[in-house]
Amino acid sequence: xxxxxxxxxxxxxxxxxxxxxxxxxxxxxxxxxxxxxxxxxxxxxxxxxxxxxxxxxxxxxxxxxxxxxxxxxxxxxxxxxxxxxxxxxxxxxxxxxxxxxxxxxxxxxxxxxxxxxxxxxxxxxxxxxxxxxxxxxxxxxxxxxxxxxxxxxxxxxxxxxxxxxxxxxxxxxxxxxxxxxxxxxxxxxxxxxxxxxxxxxxxxxxxxxxxxxxxxxxxxxxxxxxxxxxxxxxxxxxxxxxxxxxxxxxxxxxxxxxxxxxxxxxxxxxxxxxxxxxxxxxxxxxxxxxxxxxxxxxxxxxxxxxxxxxxxxxxxxxxxxxxxxxxxxxxxxxxxxxxxxxxxxxxxxxxxxxxxxxxxxxxxxxxxxxxxxxxxxxxxxxxxxxxxxxxxxxxxxxxxxxxxxxxxxxxxxxxxxxxxxxxxxxxxxxxxxxxxxxxxxxxxxxxxxxxxxxxxxxxxxxxxxxxxxxxxxxxxxxxxxxxxxxxxxxxxxxxxxxxxxxxxxxxxxxxxxxxxxxxxxxxxxxxxxxxxxxxxxxxxxxxxxxxxxxxxxxxxxxxxxxxxxxxxxxxxxxxxxxxxxxxxxxxxxxxxxxxxxxxxxxxxxxx
Length: 607
Description:
Helix content: 10-25%
Distance between the termini: 29 Å
Largest sheet: 10 strands, mixed
Strand order of the largest sheet: 9-8-7-6-10-3-11-12-4-13
Order of helices and strands: EEEHEEHHEEEEHEHHEEHEEHHEEEEHH
């Protein structure tokens, strides 16, 4: 069975996409839904699950999308049979914590009270008072726990958490307990928030400061609370220790990503060795999330990685006539090449321990690249040097907007999925999909694969994610029981002011009103309701709201229904402390006042 799939690859010379049409073989699936939870040592090998979350990396930062830094390991993985490059993959939020919530719960982050982020560099310096899923929304860890004994002791979280406090007695210190352990994982080795990507914990003890590598920053930055020095340490579960956690008591390495890959390798080897002997066959499956700090500020590359980039070994050289790369750029590109090495090590660990073929691996960034392009979300050199923005080194390529933006560059991110047992390996190389996928889809896909359900009291709760198994099997959303893909997106408390915005996607259409990069007086074009056809205008340059007013009204109506559902979740499901703080965009508030919403409103013919 063969289907035609339009494949777009950014040519790197202009903010447009060149379109190629190729034939892709429909994947043959070796998929078999898991047992009903009564796993035993004699049951067939069950799937494992791994989310690789990268940080503040733009849609066009990896070299498969013409990025400056070479990422050969990621390219090789994405092009292997059994892999799919997801060119329309979206982070569930436009900043750190919101997206992390969507991965775990399969729900838009606003539903579970995650409106923004918190600042707290380490548990020794502050205890976060952060609300995440106070009614204990079902998570990835819960899904594998409910799937039976095969997954016992097999769920681990590694890296940046940013969803609350690790202490099991946080309330005694003015915080809220909200750790990987309290949200379903068996084990953790994590930082509470942001961490420098080199020598992260070098200021945790005076005698470690000689190891500090601050790169272009020249001192530690992003300290919360603000301070010239701060500790950014790793913590893991330890029931015998005070507060139920223990922290790292030796200096972390110059390459932070290598610390996480080593922790994952040791977890995987230990799990294989201990469970294979007990089971007398295949090793027990697992579920893991590795949340790399690469390449959130303060990003720092090793000196050797920066020198290799300078020599043109790991980076494209600057375009003729351009200045040499700055120290800031070199740190960023080195950070990306170190991330690439780490991803390669993770894939190698899966292979060496016999897990790769039947592991659902999903890679995505938590949002677009740092530094906004004011006043309209279009960077200064968008037309001649989109790969090297003046505003910051990360690249969203032809996309408008960056981190925090409702424009595509804020949440359309690098995405790769591999699962050879489902995708199949008949094709000579990996595949490329332009079907819309979200970070919210990770949990629903696990639930589908394991045939598990949420507990009875949560089965009526909203779920924004979908199982992507049909997409991995070669289908398109319009041909599945789900139909066309729809999702809403917002930043912070979503008041449409100079700093916030709302958006809604349905199929090829996108409604947007306001965005973080949009600066101007009320009435400025980017603060008005806009409509874009992403199938022909991925860069969101041509507002069609005046040409298709019925489609715009239908999108606003869909958004309003989605918003009402989110508000109901905050009030009745998660019971958020700040349950009423999500306002509507001004245009929709006006439509409400004027009674312009109708339940029968339908623009299907035009949409």
